[in-house]
Amino acid sequence: MKKFSFNKQSFLILLLPLGIILSQISTIFPNYIETFYSSFLYKIIANILSLITGFLPFSLAEIIIVSFSAFILWYVLKTIFNLFKGKNRRLEISKNFILNILAITGLVYFSFQLLWGFNYQRLTLDKVFQLNVRTSSSKELADLCKVLINNSNTIRARIKENQYGVMELPYNKKHILKTAQLGYDNASIKYPKLKGNYGTPKGILLSIPMCYTGITGFYFPFTNEANINMAEPDSFLPFTTAHEMAHQRGFAKEDEANYIAYIACIKHPDINFQYSGVLSALSYSFNALRKSDTEKYNALISTCSMAVLNDLKYNQDFWNQYSGPIEKINDKINDTYLKSQNQGLGTKSYGAMVDLLLAEYRK
C-alpha cells in the first residue's frame, strides 16, 4: 500500500475518535437527531445514494465487501512478507501498517456514522409512532399470541405449499424484491415516516455461503442498499426484505426494524407478505412466552395448525444445518457491534419487538 502523507494520514486517523465522540454526544439529543438528521439530512443522503445505486440490477454492496475483504487480506499478507524480507525495517513496516489500518478504520467509521449510524440515536419508535410501551404481564403476551395464532392459521389456509406441507411462493423469489415497496406505500398512509422509495432490495449472489453466518440480510449504508439472503425459507423471506427496507428508511435498531417489517407486511396486498409478517411476529412472541411461561407456551403452540407448525419447524431445521463456528463468530461480532451502537441488549434486542407488538395490541 502506498504511504499516506503525514497530514492526510493523521487527518484520517483523527476521524475515528471524532466519530466516536460525535456518536456519544448524539445520544444526549435524540430530539435533534430525529428532527435534523433522521428526518432531514439522512433523507437527502439516502435519496442521493439511491439514485446512484438503485438502478443497478445487482448488489454493489456485495462487490465492495468481497473486494475490500480481499484487499485487506492481500495487504496483511504483503506486510507479513515484507517483515520477513526486510529484517532491518521491521519497526518502520509495522508502524506504517498500524497507521494505515487506523486511517482506514477512521475513514470507514466516520463515514458510517455520517451516512447512517446517527440513526441509532434518534427518538425511539414508540415515541415516533405514539405507542405505549411498558412492562406487560404473561397474560397479555399469551393473549397476543392467541391473536397471532388465529391470524396465522387463517391466512396459512390460503397459502400455496409444496409436497412436504411447507409454504412455497407461487412465483419467483425475485418478485418479492420487486413488489415489497407496495407494503410501505400502504403503511405510510398511517405512518408518514415510512414514506419514500429507496431502490429495489438486492438479492445476494453468495446467499448459500452467507447462510453459514446465520445472516438473513443486511443493510449497507455506503450504497443505501437492502441486501437479502435469497436462500432463506420462503415463509420468512418477505419479512426479511421488509426488515432491511426499514433500515433504508433510517430506522437502525433491530427491534424497531422488525416491528416496521411486520407493519409493512400486513399492509401489503400480497397474502404471502401478510403471512410472512404474522408468522414472524408469532415466532418472536412465542420465544418470549416460552421464556416467561412455559406452560402457557406449550398449551398455545398446540393450537397452531399443522401447516403453520411445518413452516416454523422447516425454518428451524434449515438454519440448524448451517449452524457452526462461523455462525457463532459472526453472532459474537454482531452482538459487539449492536452494543457499540448503544443497543444494550445486543442480539437479544431482536426479541424486543414483542414490546412494540404488545403496545399495538393494547392500542
Automatic annotation (TrEMBL):
The keyword Transmembrane applies. InterPro entries: DUF3810. It comes from the Bacteria. Pfam families: DUF3810. The chain crosses the membrane at residues 12-32, 44-77, 97-118. Keywords: Membrane, Transmembrane, Transmembrane helix. This is Membrane protein. It comes from Clostridium tagluense.
